[in-house]
Design goal:
The chain has about 70 residues and is of the alpha+beta class. It has one domain. It is built from four helices and three strands. It has a three-stranded antiparallel β-sheet. Strand 2 and strand 3 form a beta hairpin. The longest helix has 10 residues. It is globular and about 35 Å long.
């Protein structure tokens, strides 16, 4: 049985929700994804991010991203 933390880490956020939570613009999101610094989960043509990726990017303190 998976722990609550593991389940939370795998929770997906749509790209728009991810940007809202990180105060990141579309261009910055695209730049970070293209550079390989932001890992996306593609479902069809939709771009999603995991909770663990949200936590990682906030902890990393990437330029242009505010802590929530």
């Amino acid at each position: 049985m998976r722990s609550q933390v593991e389940q939370d880490d795998n929770r997906l956020f749509a790209a728009a929700e991810f940007r809202r939570r990180t105060n990141m613009g579309r261009t910055k999101e695209w730049e970070l994804r293209r550079a390989g610094r932001l890992r996306a989960v593609m479902i069809g043509h939709r771009i999603n991010y995991t909770m663990s990726e949200l936590r990682r990017i906030l902890a990393e303190g990437t330029e242009g991203v505010r802590h929530v």
